[in-house]
Amino acid sequence: MTPDQLLTFATVAELGNISHAAQALHLSQPAVSGQLRLLQESFGEPLYRRDGRGIRLTAVGEQVAVYANKLRQDYRQAMALRDSLRGLETGALRIGASTTPASYLLPYVIAEFHQRYPAVALHIVDGNTSEIVAQLDRLDVAFIEGAVPPGLSPEIAVRPWRDDEIVAIARADHPLAQHPAGASLQSIAGYPLIMREPGSGVRALVARAFSVSGLEPRVALELAGVESIKEAVRAGMGVGFVSAMSMRHEDAALATVRIDPPHGLKRLLTALVPHADALSRPTERFLAQCFAGDATDPAPMR
Questions:
Q1: What is the sign of the dihedral through the CA atoms of 14, 16, 20 and 26?
Q2: Residue 283 class from Cβ within 10 Å (0-12 exposed, 13-18 middle, 19+ buried)?
Q3: How far is it, in rounded angstroms, from Cα 204 to Cα 202?
């Protein structure tokens, strides 16, 4: 048994597919299969079984995966420490972001960072909030919207970043468009609603607001992504909810409707830093740029 075999097994166990693991590790599939075979031989027990196009861990395999994942986390922390001791002539920065920061805030920050440090390889992962949180162990920094999920590792620093507001959107000829200064949740609830998919920060905030108000929303459609919501609203399928940031450059076909107090849907965009105790220099510089000139205190909350 070697550390490389365990690191490979950790990726296979995570992805549940040998060919996908080979792609993620930049290895050939025979090389991955060879490492798995040697690892199994060292334990004298099968660690996985074929399951359709993927694999399913055996009971022994699940036990081995616990140690393999711990080794991988330690390995990544060692790499982060190594990178922190090196300059920005080389290096990589892995950024995760949920929909709103990925689409409407980070492109400008990332473009400026790349201009300053062109030798740093940038890897960007986007998705909804729950998808990004699930990938934290593979990221240097992540930006999410809405409430910070419970149960995060104490090694992950939580830094409040920007304020955001969720607004309702409707077609310009919709009755709600006549009240751009504000509409109550009760009046909005009377129309068919287009909601983001489960796991979305916007979806969670809107659902919580309806629940607190004792209202039952009429969900006509669920869609993934802000632009899909906008297109469905343009098509006259209902009223949607999006970040106010996403409406900054919209044409007159859509109307933005603020939600009246006391239900004004405000939220915080948050930076999560998985390796805060050993920041690489690219991560350190990127965070400094994100918080430069911002009124939000960049110090970790915990």
A1: positive
A2: buried
A3: 5
Residue located via tokens 């609830």: 189
- Percent of the chain at pLDDT > 90 equals 53
Beta-bridged to residue 241, according to DSSP, are 168
Tokens of 176: 């709600």
Predicted confidence (pLDDT) at residue 213 exceeds the cutoff of 50: yes
Query: What element of type H or E holds 50?
Result: strand 48-51
Tell me 171's DSSP state: E
Structure tokens, 124: 């960007």
Whether 176 contacts 183, CB under 8 Å: yes
More confident residue, 301 or 131: 131
**Cβ pair 280, 83 in contact under 8 A:** yes
At residue 90 the predicted structure's pLDDT band, cuts being 50, 70 and 90, is low
- Locate the domains of the chain by residue range: 3-84, 85-159+273-291, 163-267
Say if residues 229 and 196 touch (Cβ distance below 8 Å). Answer: yes
Task: For 237-287, give the DSSP string.
Answer: S-EEEEEGGGGTT--TTEEEEPBPTTS-EEEEEEEEETTGGG--HHHHHHH
DSSP state at residue 302: -
What is the second-level CATH architecture of the domain 3-84? Answer: Orthogonal Bundle (1.10)
How many residues in the chain? Answer: 302
Give residues with Cβ within 8 angstroms of 298, minimum separation 6. 159, 287, 291
Q: What is the DSSP string of 70-108?
A: HHHHHHHHHHHHHHHTS-TTS-EEEEEEEHHHHHHTHHH
Neighbours of 203 (CB within 10 A): 19
Higher pLDDT, 99 or 272: 272
- CATH class (in words) of the domain with range 85-159+273-291: alpha beta
Name the 3-class secondary structure at 196.
strand
d(CA 140, CA 183): 40
